[in-house]
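Contributing: when you submit paired examples, paste them exactly as shown. First protein:
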Amino acid sequence: PVLAIGVASLLAALAYMGGPRPIAYTPYGELTVFVFFGLVAVNGTDWVLTGSVGPVSLMASVAIGSLAAAALAVNNHRDIAHDRLVGRRTFAVSFGPQASIGLFSFLLIAPFALLPWMAVWADAPAMLLPLLLMPAALQLRRDFIDCPPGTAFNELLFRTFRLELWFAALLSAGALLGRMLG
């Protein structure tokens, strides 16, 4: 299974930017990032470490994958005009700025909706720690909507990456605390 995960990940990486129709230039970029940076990475790690994949790991993989895909959504939203000009058909180009805002908003907020389920399933209230980031996520969403076109989105991109990093760190800390206290 580890070899299969590695080969699939390598092929996805090559297909993302290479070949006659790179995934990065289609509406499937965010989905690919969600799958490989969320589902495959988190569940693959859980399987390697524990020999199985549990429901909490599945929910965590959806949360982390969503935030990773949100970062790509910022990038693609920033580049709508250029991508349209050169013929790239990203999600933002294919469905327009309003749909792009909707996708970013969903990918950014959905992980927070999973936290109570993870905390209950793991019997670890400390897994709610990432909720401390909710105000920052909501501010990031507002700033995304109000951001002028162009390079101003670069700051939002970095903030999205930081949010994902802190979300993962607090979720991990909550899981560890749950184990230690439970």
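Second protein:
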Amino acid sequence: MKWLETIDRYRLAVAGLALSVVLFFAVNIFSNAAFQALRLDMTEGKLFTLSEGTRNVLAAIDEPIRLRLYYSKLLGERSPRHATYFERVRELADRYGEISGGKVILEVLNPEPFSDTEDSAVAFGLQGIPLNNTGDLGYFGLSGVNSTDDRAVIPFFTTERESFLEYDLTKVVFTLANPERKVVGVMSRLPIDGGAMRPPFTQTPAWAIMDQIREFFQVRSLPAELREIPEDIDILMLVHPKGLNDFTLYAIDQFVLGGGRALVFVDANAEVDVPPGGRMTSLPRSEFNKVLETWGVRLASGKVAGDLDAARRVNVRVGGKMTVVDYVVWMGLSRNNFDTKDAVTGDISLINVASAGVLEKTKDAKTQVLPIVSTGPRSMGIDAEKVMIRPDVVGLFRDFKSGGKPLTLAARIKGT
């Protein structure tokens, strides 16, 4: 009888194992069918969890967008970090294809030296980096085209910008899905777009920043006095607003309240706003606090920022001798001064600033005022009049008294 019990136990074990195998395959088949679109992101920082903004962009695509990911295998062999980053880029782009319902099409190419694929990468404007002494270049970039042959390019995926991968990739897709350029309305009494401002009315070229903006947007100059912002303006850019009447201020405020976006550049010491000969009849400062305060922020009255740690060293003559002094209102701001999590400032390593104004959050602010550029803690607000004409560089350094907290130089304002 014992041998019969042994056989029964053996049969039960085999049957149990067989049932386990059947259940294993059944669960996997059911899961694949029922939860095909469900994914769990366990990576640190949620690398593959897309933002709502990206999902909205992908859902709104009307026509196919073809992405070509150029990646040199030799680059991955020489740099394991780039190899890992390539896998992330490829998987994220594949995810874009899934969410867009196949509208985003990914093609991975290996641009070997002297190949047609390398010629294609160069033609799209991708950047190669030297891999060896023979001059071979490695590529790791992306080009995108839509049905009307509009193009968008990421010349090279730098590992320093890896935290902004979703932003950069979505920007390419959005640009191709919406080839019509946004319109930037520029309002300023300064000749930033060229022209003449005061006698003798000599023509001046446009500022370099305007050429950069025109690479991505349509630019329209707006008069300094108007009753409403034109409906086709997507972004309003105000540079050193000054002397605006109440109708214009109201139009600007209504544009923002209606959902429009504004870039506002205000200054407590606009060095460029100086008449010929240097004779000033009024302080060269912006006048926009009337509107800014309704948004929860103000430009500190008559103050410029000084930073002891970021101060640039300059040569000055003291007692007939040249000496080196830290000019506290001329600052060389580094990554410690930027919000590295913000897409605007996250990739900036250095900005030189001269006599910058200070932004202050109002006490009753109902908006979010998020600093994106700030001084260091050893800073203070300095009277703007002290730096306007023949500043005492040594005196400013000697009289410097740290306030013990950073000062906001640029901020993002969000909210109702």
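If you have annotations for the second protein, write them as plain sentences, like these:
Residues 162 and 257 are 34 Å apart (CA to CA).
The radius of gyration is 29 Å.
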